[in-house]
Design the sequence.
């Protein structure tokens, strides 16, 4: 009897291999499934617990915002008009573009095109920086116009939601910087998994904004 | 094969940008009132969750990921999407 066999198996191990797959069963240290293969997970499984948890926290924020809007639709509609919808839309396109560059970087990495991958990640980081500059400029404009976090509940949520998302952009910037530094060094074993993990985090930053934009800028009319 | 994958993510990106432009047009349409605004907002919110699905399936490469992961991701979209649209309409 083997106690805690789960600890003895590699991630995505062969315990569940069908009895017919003798070749697979004879390979206790089978490599983890590659992209697109059966049972594949981008990055680490644990990362996805964190990402989905983070996304769910944002889901609760979105619903809370809409509940508050239902209590005082007039104030929310009036304060929303102070936001420039086009700015939110431009930032959506900026983050979608950064996400595309990251997706292309992962594919270039798999092709062994390290320099190309590096250029793509640098481009994604530049898009992230552009998003941050636009966001800070938007905050500055709103504050100058007298819209503060304590002006009304709409602006409390506006600064809270965009602020927490901004924190994710900053963390994402650190993740992309780490990725760039890694690409500047010699390739290491297991690197693809690290790259996928970094990419998944950045895609989540994009994904959250894709929902945040219509909820905040468009739904309070 | 890889060039095909590349053109596929580029195509997805183009569709996502197009959807953003449509949402912007729908969301900032002036002169419409009442039910039309509500319908437009529901459409914009629904489009956002469809966009999220494509970011997940294509950019995050979850389309062919292990079933528990893909199911969890799709469940998030269904639950949060329904909660957001439902709260918008009912709250």
Sequence:
């Amino acid at each position: 009897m083997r106690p805690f066999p789960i600890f003895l198996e590699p991630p995505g191990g062969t315990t569940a291999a069908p009895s017919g797959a003798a070749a697979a069963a004879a390979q206790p240290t089978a490599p983890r499934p590659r992209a697109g293969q059966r049972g594949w997970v981008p990055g680490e499984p644990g990362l996805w617990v964190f990402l989905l948890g983070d996304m769910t926290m944002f889901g609760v924020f979105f619903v809370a915002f809409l509940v508050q809007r239902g209590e005082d639709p007039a104030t929310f509609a009036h304060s929303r008009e102070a936001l420039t919808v086009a700015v939110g839309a431009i930032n959506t396109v900026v983050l979608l573009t950064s996400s595309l560059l990251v997706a292309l970087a992962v594919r270039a990495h798999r092709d062994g095109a390290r320099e190309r991958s590096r250029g793509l990640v640098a481009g994604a980081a530049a898009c992230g920086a552009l998003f941050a500059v636009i966001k800070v400029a938007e905050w500055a404009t709103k504050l100058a116009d007298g819209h503060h976090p304590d002006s009304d509940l709409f602006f409390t949520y506006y600064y809270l939601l965009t602020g927490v998302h901004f924190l994710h952009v900053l963390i994402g910037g650190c993740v992309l910087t780490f990725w760039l530094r890694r690409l500047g060094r010699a390739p290491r074993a297991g690197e693809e998994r690290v790259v996928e993990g970094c990419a998944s985090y950045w895609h989540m930053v994009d994904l959250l904004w894709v929902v945040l934009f219509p909820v905040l800028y468009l739904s309070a009319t | 094969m890889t060039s095909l994958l590349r053109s596929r993510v580029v195509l997805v990106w183009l569709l996502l940008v197009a959807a953003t432009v449509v949402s912007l047009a729908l969301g900032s349409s002036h002169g419409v009132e009442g039910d039309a605004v509500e319908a437009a907002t529901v459409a914009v919110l629904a489009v956002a969750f469809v966009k999220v699905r494509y970011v997940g399936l294509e950019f995050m490469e979850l389309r062919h990921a292990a079933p528990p992961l893909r199911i969890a991701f799709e469940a998030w979209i269904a639950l949060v999407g329904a909660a957001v649209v439902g709260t918008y309409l009912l709250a």
About this structure: Chain B touches chain A through 47 residues (CB under 8 Å). The radius of gyration of chain B is 16 Å.
